[in-house]
Design a protein that fits this description.
This protein is mainly alpha-helical. It has one domain. It is about 65% helix and about 0% strand. The longest helix is centred in the last third of the chain and has 26 residues.
Amino acid sequence: MTVVDIISIVHIVISVLLAGIILLQVKGQGAGLFGSADNSFRTRRGLELQMFRFTIGLVVVFIALSIASARLF
């Protein structure tokens, strides 16, 4: 396997992880459907905060891999 193959495989894995973690983060689920939308603006805590930070990390890795693969091809 060459470096390009490894970067491509890692890029695909990061893409799938990124899509999955974004789908797990349901923003505003049902906000305002059954009354007031007071809970629409709240701070992230616990698992939600960790998922948010993990998403940012995945995006940074995804962009870095995209730049690396563009330079290698």
